[in-house]
Amino acid sequence: MSSNHTTIVSAPGKVLLAGGYLVLDRSYSGLVVATSSRFYTSITSPSSSSPLISPSPLGSSVLPTALPSSSSAQSSNGTQSLTLSATSSDETQHSSSCEISVRAGQFSCQESTWTYSLSFDDDKGVQVEAIGEGKNKFIEITLTQTLRYVRARLAQDIGSVQAGKELRKRSRGIQVVVLADNDFYSQREQLSESRLPPRISSLASLRPFHPLPRPIHKTNKTGLGSSAALVTSLVAGLLQHLGVISIPSSSSSQSETLHHTSSPPPTQSTSTTSQSETLYISSISFGLDIVHSLAQFAHCLAQGKVGSGFDVSSAVYGTHIYRRFSPSILSQLMNSSSSSSSVSSSSSSLLISSLDPIEWDQQISPFRLPSGLRLMLADVDAGTDTPSFVGRVLKWREAERDPANDLWGRLDQANRCLEDVLSRIAGRESASDYMRELEQASRNGVGEKEEGSDGLVGLLGDAKTALNEIRRLLREMSDASQVPIEPPEQTRLLDACSACSGVIGGGVPGAGGYDAIFLLVIDQPGVIQAVEDIWASWTEMSVCPLLASQSDGGLRLESLEAVRGLKEALER
Ligand SMILES: Nc1ncnc2c1ncn2[C@@H]1O[C@H](COP(=O)(O)OP(=O)(O)O)[C@@H](O)[C@H]1O
Ligand SMILES: C[C@@](O)(CCOP(=O)(O)OP(=O)(O)O)CC(=O)O
């Protein structure tokens, strides 16, 4: 077999619509919306290097031939058993090391290709060493920890020595390309080079995966969570390619259902599926759950801290209401791992046990924005540093416990009101006059709910009230903590946008600051145009739209032909 074998996986970006700061504390939840802009990981290896993986059309599910069927027993951690056929006789052809390269496809090839040498030692497990000068901590750590995990899983089934040989065979010749949709990075320069105004239509006309002129660390990000989407898609791509999991494909009708029902047992399955469906879903969703725990771990290790993890969670599961995992789940692993690339048998079992989805207590509750509404995002040109914001806000909360807890409680209530009213609007989607009423409201304007107005118009008014209340409380937090979460410049911009007919409301996503805003609007051309006019003429700060809107789906397996511009970008 001479043709290559390719796996392409994508993960969405994120917008934390409600729950910034609160979501760091497991007593509260956050509303995270996944974006239509995605991060792609493509993994190719010569088909001869992965003899146990059936050669299949690009983008289709690539199950290892030796994997048991869905009716077979599952291993202790719930993922599928990796029972293998005897290691093939060609293993002697391979040396005890091999190389894997990872290239960031839209950056300079020279500066943004990282090559890693993998050695497989019977005692030490797999060792990953960067070759050359350039470093990419997120990629190196993700690659290392994912290979450690795969080796540890293989070792459970076929013993340590065979596991090393098998992994070496499967890893040989792997080439990875990572590509982010344009939205992840500021496209101001690309727009002005092409003499295009900062409009959504201009962004749509830029070539997909537009090459970027500077190295990654000097490129302005837009806040969609590039590192979380990178880590998640890379973990998932490798696990899929190496035959450990099976991710739903983008064409699979199951994928949205999976998203809405996938949650680590036993905490929060709100699924109403039949038992047989549930069995099918849970065997696959366990694949997603292992991606989740491994990606959270790799992301925390690369960041050097354990954050709330809402970004990784939405990269895996898509839009949802997120309650964080207990940080203690990762303590032992974080302490024992540093970024060390080797693995002893004791740390190997710690890896398997700590990442077992059964041990994880995050909650993923289904949520989606109602149809007919649209999330609009803008990149605001001014820089803030989220880590320092978080540190300062938490320090204030520590110092002023009572007022802070009182504020946390009121914010939580406002956040829940927003979730509740949006779900109630979504509950009306099937009404025959739903779209007509929305269209009418987009012309008449959405006001905070008035006495006596009920029905859809009343609900839209309630949504406006909830969004405004959240903003008001975040300004209270800004004043009390002296951290500019919604600074006056953003207040002016948001107020101007919110006054537009058809705009329900908006806010500062996540940690807030000067970087970005979101708006929730009725999805009508007139409304979008009016908002874009305000942004284009805003002089106090430079406001550039993002192309993305909301998307429900999380991680997915892609087919090369289905993603505009991907083939060309991979061939560059
Ligand atoms: N396209 C890319 N290719 C490779 N690595 C990337 C890419 N985009 C982001 N990264 C990695 O993620 C890091 C940025 O992470 P971070 O500062 O946490 O930003 P964000 O908030 O967008 O996640 C970069 O330094 C780089 O290591
Ligand atoms: C404060 C937070 O609750 C939310 C931060 O959300 P952002 O979307 O601002 O995050 P970055 O991608 O790191 O910029 C911290 C957290 O939950 O980890």
TrEMBL record:
Entry's Gene Ontology molecular function annotations: ATP binding; phosphomevalonate kinase activity
Annotated catalysed reactions: (R)-5-phosphomevalonate + ATP = (R)-5-diphosphomevalonate + ADP
Gene Ontology cellular component?
A: peroxisome
- Where in this protein does the record put region Disordered? 64-90, 253-274
UniProt-listed GO biological process terms: ergosterol biosynthetic process; farnesyl diphosphate biosynthetic process, mevalonate pathway; isopentenyl diphosphate biosynthetic process, mevalonate pathway
Q: Where is the composition biased (Low complexity)?
A: 64-81
Q: What is its EC number?
A: 2.7.4.2
- One matching Pfam family is GHMP_kinases_C
User: Which pathway, metabolic or otherwise, does it act in?
Assistant: Isoprenoid biosynthesis; isopentenyl diphosphate biosynthesis via mevalonate pathway; isopentenyl diphosphate from (R)-mevalonate: step 2/3
Entry-linked InterPro entries: Erg8, GHMP_kinase_C_dom, GHMP_kinase_C_sf, Phosphomevalonate_kinase, Ribosomal_Su5_D2-typ_SF, Ribsml_uS5_D2-typ_fold_subgr
Q: Which UniProt keywords apply?
A: ATP-binding, Kinase, Lipid biosynthesis, Lipid metabolism, Nucleotide-binding, Steroid biosynthesis, Steroid metabolism, Transferase
UniProt domain GHMP kinase C-terminal: residue ranges = 466-531
What family is this protein classified in? Belongs to the GHMP kinase family. Mevalonate kinase subfamily.
UniProt name for this protein: phosphomevalonate kinase
